[in-house]
Design a protein that fits this description.
Layout lengths: L1 H18 L6 H4 L4 H4 L7 H11 L14 E5 L5 H8 L4 E6 L2 H14 L5 E5 L12 E7 L11 H18 E10 L20 H10 L14 H8 L14 H5 L4 E2 L9 E2 L5 H13 L9 E7 L9
Parallel strand pairs: 1-2, 1-4, 2-3, 4-5
Antiparallel strand pairs: 5-8, 6-7
Helix pairs in contact: 4-5, 7-9
Length: 312
């Protein structure tokens, strides 16, 4: 009898999820945007929003009054972090991106998924944000900085990236939350995913990638180091001891989750017990916060003195 009741409850839950827009693939909600969605078409909003809540917004809990704070997500893409913010009780969110079509997807999604919440979109570059000094309580840039200056020379790309980080600092009244691959780590999956490839000049990296069939989507990204980011932010380090978490155990609690990123959006990821998790935990126990120089990702919550005194 108990088994039968359990099966009925499971069937009811599955039927409810079928009709719940949060649990339907994005292309079913917005069939007219399949070209824009591309490989993200079958991603479910609930997966993406839960990812950003677990991985990023959790570090703000207890530090930020969500209901009184305005957030801007720079390089927002489809705006999942902005949606996660307002669904978590955030006052309002602004999504900034250079891709107008992706921002249109966000506008439509917000009308369907969060009609009573305030989510605004702005087309702009990270290097020149059209906002006043200290305009936002929280400024975020997740997997964005490595793409700033794509197509430019190495020197020009570096200048654009440093300016983008300074813009994050300028527009924030207090908090900057960012994540980007670490140039000092020898193997970066966000690039062509070959050892030391990102340390080579672009021509050699392209040849190296071609030899292994890896010349792909992120072959022109330029990676930053921890000192470069912290100098541009004018900080001595993040307030969070381990990535953007208070401890390795807090980080591990964010797993399992469904990643909203390529190469397989919606793929289940669980690093609990993995070699990477054990190695990063050991580094943290030995080096403390200095271990951030050696992690695959530069990720943290920073307190900055923004460019203005306006109340967030």
């Amino acid at each position: 009898m108990t088994v039968a009741v359990g099966k009925r409850q499971l069937r009811r839950r599955r039927r409810a999820e079928t009709w719940n827009p949060w649990h339907r693939p994005v292309d079913e909600l917005l069939p007219g945007f399949r070209t824009t969605l591309g490989p993200y078409a079958r991603l479910k909003p609930a997966w993406a929003v839960e990812y950003f809540r677990r991985r990023f917004l959790r570090s703000l809990e207890g530090r930020v009054d969500f209901g009184e704070t305005l957030l801007v997500d720079v390089g927002s893409g489809f705006g999942w972090l902005a949606l996660a913010w307002v669904m978590a009780g955030g006052r309002a969110a602004v999504a900034v991106d250079t891709d107008l079509d992706r921002l249109r997807v966000l506008t439509r999604l917000a009308r369907i998924l969060a009609p009573s919440c305030s989510v605004w979109t702005v087309v702009a570059r990270a290097e020149s944000l059209p906002f006043g000094d200290g305009a936002f309580g929280v400024v975020t840039a997740v997997e964005v900085l490595e793409h700033v200056g794509e197509g430019l020379s190495r020197r020009d790309a570096r200048a654009h990236q440093r300016q983008a980080v300074r813009e994050l600092r300028r527009t924030s009244a207090k908090w900057v939350l960012l994540s980007t691959p670490n140039r000092w780590f020898p193997w970066v999956r966000h690039d062509v995913s070959l050892p030391a490839a990102h340390w080579l000049p672009y021509g050699l990296k392209r040849l190296y990638a071609r030899l292994f069939g890896r010349e792909g989507l992120f072959a022109r990204v330029r990676l930053l180091s921890v000192p470069e980011i912290e100098r541009a932010l004018s900080v001595s380090g993040p307030v969070t001891p381990f990535l953007n978490f208070n401890s390795p155990s807090d980080w591990l609690k964010s797993f399992p989750h469904r990643t909203p990123y390529l190469p397989q959006p919606g793929r289940r990821v669980d690093k609990r017990g993995s070699l990477q998790a054990r190695a990063m935990t050991l580094l943290y126990r030995i080096l403390g916060k200095k271990a951030r120089y050696l992690y695959p990702t530069i990720c943290g919550l920073y307190t900055v003195r923004g460019g203005g005194r306006r109340k967030p």
